[in-house]
Amino acid sequence: MTQDEYVESLQRKFETHFNIENGIEIFGEKVDVHAKFCNVSGRTFITKNDVIDRCENYEYCYIKKVNIVTEDVVASFGQFLKKIVDECIDPGKDHMSTYVTGVIIGNSINENARKVIHKYCYSKAYSFYLRGWCDVRFICIGINNNEVISNKAAKHVQKVYQITP
Amino acid sequence: MNSLTLLLLGILLFLVAYATYGAYLAKHWGIDNERKTPAHTCRDDIDYCPANAKVLLGHHFSSIAGAGPITGPIAAAIFGWLPVYLWIVIGSIFVGGVHDWGSLFASIRHDGKSIGEIIRVNIGARGKMLFNIFAYLTLVLVVAAFTDICASTFAFDPAKPELLSGARAGTASILFIFLAMAFGFFVYRKGANLTLSSIIGVALLFFSIWIGYQFPILKLTKFEWDVVLIVYIFAASTMPVWFLLQPRDYLCSFLLYAMLAGAVIGILIVRPAMAIPASVGFTIGEGVKAQYLFPMLFVTVACGAISGFHSLVGSGTSSKQLSTEKDTKLVGYGAMLIEGILAIIALITVGYVVGAKGTPAQIFAGGVSDFMSNFGIPVSIGTVFVILAFSAFALTSLDTATRLGRYLFQEMTARADGKKSILNNMYVATAITVGLSALLLSYGYQKIWPIFGSANQLLAGLSLLAVSAWLAKSGKKNFMTVIPMVFMFAVTLTALILVGRNNFASGNFIIGSVAAILFVLAIILIVTTINTFFGKKSEKKNISA
Would the pLDDT of B307 be above 50? Predict the structure, then answer.
């Protein structure tokens, strides 16, 4: 499978629930795919417009293709994801969770880059969790070896990113 | 009379009614299994999505059941067990079940809109405002009634230091709140496995009962519990739902199943006789304290026989998820009949513990724990367990009612230009709602409950009116909804007159005024709704099937 075929298969998975944009630039970082998800749940009284309570869950996914995943690429993309959290996430009173997912797709993954990804950790709690939290999930795909590595926060979504023919 | 006979007879009658009267209604209403439901025609896999009917029954039942079906029959037992039993059985089959099923069926034929929504959309701006005021006052009464019941149940009397069940249950309840928050944190935030977390959560839930039993440290008076609960309600109803309400409700469902299983097994083993009289006549008491079987029985036992809030509150999802019209019977009619069984269990409990005094929670806990003692659970621990279960339901009702009340207050005080005002603030609206309820606390739940019941039953009458109008305009027979509707309006209006009169005569002017306001609003709402559905303008409204 090539990088483009893999990105295409990911987009097919996302398109049911995510809004997808291709080839965008944010904070000077070029991103091949930007996928946004928002789920609002809650209870209403009598009519659908009379909302008693609600909670909002978001996920923003940034997918970037590179040739080889190196330590520097990971560090730079990691900083970009932190900047997204710090400057773009503005939790309202109904906010419950936001997951910022960064996916780097390379043909191979450098050994040092693996260590950096495994150790990568960034999360925030807002107003002592009363306004929810935000976690950064960092995932790296090695196309040649069919490998998916991630940080701890992304562990339980790893299977979504498995390379399947 | 042996209570096992009453329980089995009740279940048998409900089953027979489900098979016979249910089939009759289905035939005359034209339940069409081939017709596509909104879950298919409006399918979006978010709100509209076909679901398994049995799963929906579980969701629907848990959203309509609360502490109401327990409180009502216990409070009404002063009239004797026979009239209460008859009202639960007949009411559930011919009134409440028809109301719930009819509302759900009408909703299915209106693209999943609830019957409350159909009424409110059709009655115009003035009617909507009156409806909001009526619902708001009802909610204030609910908050006051359940706060009083919980505080009275948990209260410790220094003059009777040997009575510790309240302090034990109160301590366990507070522990349960923190447990629920921790459960939510680990499941939502830390992504802990739900099955494993549930097992640990339920184990810790029973551990908190044991801690409360061994170390009843919260020995607070009724007034102190009032204050604690008011602060709690304010905090809980302004917190995010996933923070406390959702995990607490989830854990609470295990309490409900355990409590119901314990009560039913206990009744099967003990087969207790009903020790209270079958009937004590039409009138109890004299003068301003007189209680009349009609209408007071029918407003006191609300949720166990019919409840207007069933058609308004709830998940709001059932009608959007029913896969076939046939499923409306199981979910709408079936859930109400199951609630009737819960009400019969509550009645058996109060009939068994003859002469028991205290709040409905204490009486219910006394009876069920006695039943459970026959299969090895000590009475004192069983009492704490049942009170905890009851209070958990009551606290959920309090939280939801306060949220609803706050929302309605914000809607009523919203400025026409859309700008924010101080009254529109979430915290101010909550404080006012809770504050108004606190004003009523000194009257006690006994005086508040009948007014709440009346208001609740009026909502049921309005829903029945809307369903009747829709059936008539669809060329279908509607006597099955018209007769209960007339009865519920008669009950409601008579009860409000009596409650208002008695309270004014006793000098309880605040509560008397609430009854008077509700009476006037009830008349206006009935007239407005009749004009909406049967008046000339109704031809323009979309209420046809």
Answer: yes
Whether B56 maps to a domain, the answer reads yes
Determine the residue type at B167.
Answer: A
Burial class (CB in 10 A: 0-12, 13-18, 19+), B514: buried
Q: Phi first, then psi: what are they for B168, rounded to 5°?
A: -65, -50
- Chain B residue at shortest CA distance from A42: B241
HEC string of A18-31? CEEEEEEEECCEEE
Tens digits of residue pLDDT in B492-520: 999 999 999 988 998 888 889 989 999 99
- The answer to whether residue B545 sits within a structural domain is no
Confidence of residue B394 (pLDDT cuts 50, 70, 90): confident
CATH of the domain at B259: 1.20.1740
Contact B316 A50 (CB under 8 A): no
The pLDDT of residue B114 is 72
Q: Picking from A96-110, B208-222, B443-457, which range would have the lowest pLDDT averaged per residue?
A: B443-457
Least confident window among A67-71, B45-49, B488-492: B45-49
> Residue B474: which domain range?
3-540
Give residue limits of the domains in chain A.
Answer: 3-94+107-161
* Global pTM value: 0.81
Instruction: Tell me whether residue B28 is in a domain.
Output: yes
A133/B189 CB distance under 8 A: yes
Q: Scanning the structure block, which residue is given the tokens 């070029």?
A: A30
Q: Per the CB < 8 Å rule, is B242 touching A55?
A: yes
Sign for the CA dihedral angle at B190, B195, B196, B201 comes to positive
Task: State the total domains in chain B.
Answer: 1
